[in-house]
Specification:
7 strands, 2 helices
Length: 134
């Protein structure tokens, strides 16, 4: 888990997916916070770092100081995500809530757990595409 630089930043890690699926998640966050996303050197958006268990972790830091999580809507394609992925959000509570809200607007979400800390919180979500109307 990396440490974010400011109180407005949230570290977002996506696993259990390929690069294209991670990019779909990160594009949704960039639409919500257009001037507030930054690649993390070595594990930034578009690159992955392999953990000891063989899982690839895609990572992005989102600065929630600007943007509107309500304004993004669902992703451009009809299903959003081709597969179900795990997302871990880490930061102080208000910014994590904003990133979570943006992800809930864009994708179907299921909470998989929350770990409170003294000043930060970690939230685990399962993201999937929304069902398309027939």
């Amino acid at each position: 888990m990396s440490t974010v630089d400011t109180d407005d930043c949230v570290d977002v890690q996506v696993t259990d997916c390929d690069r294209e699926t991670a990019d779909t998640v990160f594009r949704a966050l960039r639409r919500a916070f257009p001037r507030g996303t930054e690649e993390v050197e070595g594990t930034g958006a578009g690159s992955g770092a392999s953990r000891g268990n063989g899982r690839v972790v895609w990572s992005l830091v989102v600065n929630t100081g600007s943007g509107d999580p309500d304004a993004i809507g669902p992703p451009e394609d009809s299903s959003g995500l081709g597969e179900t992925v795990e997302a871990v959000l880490y930061g102080t509570v208000p910014p994590v809530r904003r990133v979570r809200k943006a992800l809930e607007t864009a994708f179907a979400t299921e909470e998989r757990g929350t770990v409170p800390g003294e000043h930060e919180v970690e939230v685990r979500l399962r993201l999937s595409g929304r069902a398309t109307p027939d």
